[in-house]
Design a protein that fits this description.
Elements lengths: L1 H38 L13 H11 L2 E7 L5 E7 L2 E7 L6 E3 L6 H12 L3 H30 L14 H12 L1 H18 L29 H5 L5 E5 L9 E6 L2 E6 L5 E6 L2 H14 L4 H27 L16 E6 L4 H15 L4 E5 L11 E7 L13 H7 L6 E9 L8 H11 L4 E3 L4 E4 L3 H14 L19 E11 L4 E8 L10 E4 L8 E7 L4 E7 L5 H7 L6 E7 L12 E7 L4 H8 L6 E8 L9 H9 L5 E6 L9 H7 L1 H9 L3 E6 L1 H19 L3 H6 L3 E5 L1
Parallel strand pairs: 9-10, 9-11, 11-12, 12-13, 12-14, 21-22, 21-24, 22-23, 24-25
Antiparallel strand pairs: 1-2, 1-5, 2-3, 3-4, 5-6, 6-7, 7-8, 15-16, 15-20, 16-19, 17-18, 17-20, 18-19
């Protein structure tokens, strides 16, 4: 429920201020160009800041008739105000020579227009008030956004951890909000502060210095370039200097530095009065600089990027909201008549699309099925089976459409007994992988009238193949045959590439084969990426983890299934045949470049991408491979490669576990338990563990690793997951 408060607060602030923020951001982008334009003008003189004020005044007094004032602006340019031939003149000078460099920079009409629109919307005080409120709302949006990202990532300490890409809007909204967080916060805070100054809510005190006119001295009379004070003050400290109005001793130099103001006797150089600027004045000066980037090209670019990000974040934020599943789902069967009830917990709508596919297939086979959000849990009079399909939000919390589920589960009691199954959607990049699915499953188990059909089934990174595997397992337990259509979300728009079949190694007894491919054009795959193959006979995509053996040589390991459309299509390809496929980047499963010790864990064809990683280990970093298969015969397909890699020093150790050996039956998790000291050492020293294979294997391996981390390292497994020391690609 707490997440909802933050989420809806974030949305409300955005809705209330979006129009004004769009205006402010667009004008802000334009105004970010102004300090860059000013800074590149040819008025900068290198090394001038180190000149003493005495040296500068001496030069100016010699080269100009009557100097009234000098000003050093935030660009570092020195401007002189003088009187010549009875006319006031302002111009930039070279402090070394007194040379006139040019007239003051005039504000361009586009900058003037943008400034007025940015500050007040051309509405004067009411407009300034609206912009000030928009700045305050921007601060609140940033604050609530920080909380939401922290919750999504699994805590504030993981704020900058890698983002799981669920969809374009979600991914880039989080990505660019993190990148531009600092400039946006600065713009918001300084905007609020300057507005408070404008309306005198924060009073800005004025300096009042008093001069003892009765004790003014005209002796000893010194030239200004002989004043000790002027010799000590560097030009870089100066903000403004006003010359005495007359030659009377009662008139004096007024000097404003970075942090103080002084009155100086024009004859003796004596300090007549001095005061430090109040803190409010200093803060105001900094607020102006930080908000306008005056005098800094780099900061102007940063602020421009922040301003540019605001419209993008507004648009993607609204897209995320409007793409969220609505509570109204069209059902052909009423909730009272449905024997199968599917409840969905989703944050952005992705999980719902999978559930809709299941509902569609059940209805097509004449099963009465009702689909709803978990927040709509109710008494279902005819329900015989409940299917919960849910994502997890942040630190194991309920997603948006499942926040009320636990409360409803306690209030709404079913009159009949029913079976249930739970499917969790998530990403192993997050430490609390599918945690809410486990919580929901446990709560359902506690009810008197429920029977769990199976353990919680988890789906990583929206894997259609994994969900189909669950669907097959579940439907078989119900004596059904449910085959799903691939949701559109799984597809990708990447251009296809052409590959030539170089060689096919086959193990008939195990129905497993290796396909060596030559990359002819287009893609630049990396070991761990996925090869998307669509057989000519159908439209269903199949993803295979690929290994890169050399620049133009790839390998995929495939298990042939009797009715497998794609595996049989690939199996019938002859040497020299062309294969059209797409390479899908899988950056979260690339080999770690900086890891000196790496452990690879695979079962069956999951060894495929590891073959490429081993081949590319030219630095001969310590590399351990643990592989599980049915029988020793399964190894013959990879044996020559493994032995060669060990001889070349690319593979340090290789250990196997065979599940169909009567006397030596073992699984990879047993090898991990036996070699736990190695795993402890690798994790402690910043090494990496990579896992590829079945979901079932992944579950057992993670359980063993979790035990090792807890019992021998004193840290939770999630600690190493967040540090990207554990990478997984399971199916």
């Amino acid at each position: 429920m707490l997440v909802s408060v933050w989420r809806y607060s974030h949305l409300l602030f955005a809705i209330c201020s979006s129009i004004f923020l769009l205006i402010a951001s667009v004008t802000g982008i334009i105004l970010a160009v102004e300090p860059i334009y000013n800074k590149v003008q040819p008025y900068h003189v290198s090394g001038a800041d180190e000149l003493s004020l005495a040296e500068v005044l001496s030069t100016l007094n010699q080269t100009h008739e009557e100097v009234v004032a000098i000003t050093r602006d935030r660009n570092g340019f020195l401007k002189v105000s003088s009187i010549a031939e009875g006319k006031n003149q302002d111009f930039y000078v070279n402090p070394f020579t007194g040379e006139n460099l040019g007239l003051p920079i005039e504000k361009k009409p586009i900058f003037q227009f943008s400034t007025n629109l940015h500050r007040s919307l051309f509405l004067k005080s009411p407009g300034r008030l609206l912009i000030g409120l928009a700045s305050f709302f921007l601060f609140l949006i940033a604050l609530t956004g920080i909380v939401l990202i922290a919750k999504r990532q699994g805590g504030l300490s993981k704020f900058f951890s890698p983002i799981v890409k669920e969809n374009f809007s979600q991914y880039h909204h989080v990505k660019y909000s993190r990148i531009t967080l600092i400039p946006i916060l600065v713009l918001a805070i300084t905007g609020v502060y300057l507005s408070l100054l404008r309306f005198e809510i924060i009073p800005e005190p004025t300096i009042s210095l008093e001069v003892d006119y009765d004790n003014l001295n005209e002796t000893p009379s010194l030239s200004s370039n002989d004043f000790e004070l002027f010799k000590k003050i560097k030009l870089g400290e100066l903000r403004e200097l006003e010359y005495p109005f007359s030659e009377f001793v009662e008139d004096y130099y007024i000097i404003r530095l970075k942090n103080r103001e002084l009155y100086v006797n024009q004859y003796t150089g004596e300090i007549l009065a001095e005061a430090q600027f109040p803190m409010v004045n200093i803060i105001s000066s900094w607020a102006t600089v930080l908000h306008t980037a005056e005098g800094s090209i780099l900061w102007a670019i940063v602020l421009g990027a922040g301003s540019l990000a605001i419209p993008f974040l507004i648009v993607t934020g609204f897209v995320i909201y409007f793409k969220r599943p609505k509570t109204r789902i069209k059902n052909k069967i009423s909730k009272s008549d449905a024997e199968f009830v599917i409840l969905v917990g989703t944050e952005g709508g992705t999980t719902l699309q999978f559930a809709e596919q299941l509902q569609k297939r059940l209805l097509q086979q004449n099963y009465s099925c009702f689909l709803a959000m978990m927040n709509d849990y109710d008494c279902f009079k005819s329900m015989k089976q409940l299917i919960v399909i849910t994502a997890t939000y942040g630190q194991g919390e309920a997603p948006a459409s499942a926040e009320k589920f636990m409360q409803l589960l306690a209030k709404k009691s079913q009159s009949q007994k029913f079976q249930f199954a739970t499917v969790g959607f998530g990403s192993t990049a997050y430490p609390h992988f599918c945690q809410f699915a486990y919580v929901a499953h446990q709560q359902l188990e506690k009810l008197d009238k429920t029977t769990a059909l199976m353990e919680v089934f988890t789906v990583n990174d929206q894997s259609f193949e994994a969900f189909q595997n669950w669907c097959t397992e579940w439907s078989q337990s119900q004596e059904m045959d449910i085959r799903l259509e691939k949701p559109k979300i799984v597809g990708n728009s990447l251009p296809p590439s052409t590959f030539k079949v170089l060689h096919k190694d086959e193990l008939p007894s195990d129905e497993t084969f290796l396909l060596n491919l030559k990359n002819l054009n287009g893609a630049k795959p990396v070991s761990g990426d996925l090869l998307s193959v669509i057989p000519k006979e159908g439209e269903r995509e199949r993803l295979y983890s690929l290994g890169k053996l050399s620049d133009n040589s790839l390998v995929i390991s495939i298990r042939r299934h009797p009715n497998g459309l794609c595996s049989n299509y690939l199996h019938q390809l002859e040497n020299g045949a062309d294969l059209t496929a797409k390479v899908v980047p899988n950056r979260n499963f690339h080999f770690p470049k900086k890891s000196k010790k790496t452990i690879l864990i695979a079962t069956g064809t999951g060894i495929g991408p590891f073959l490429g990683m081993i081949a590319e280990n030219s630095k001969k970093n310590e590399l351990h491979l643990y592989w599980g298969a049915r029988t020793p015969n399964s190894l013959s397909l990879y044996k020559d490669f493994i032995e060669k890699s060990i001889q070349e020093g690319k593979l340090s150790h290789f250990k196997t576990a065979y599940s169909r050996e009567k006397d030596k039956k073992a699984y990879v998790q047993h090898l991990i338990e036996k070699d736990k000291q190695l795993f402890i050492e690798v994790l402690k020293k910043g090494g990496t563990i990579m896992i590829c294979g079945s979901i079932a294997m992944q579950k057992e391996v993670l359980q063993e690793l979790r035990s090792i981390c807890s019992n021998y390292i004193g840290k939770d497994l999630s600690h190493f997951q967040n540090k990207r020391q554990i990478k997984m690609d399971c199916y």
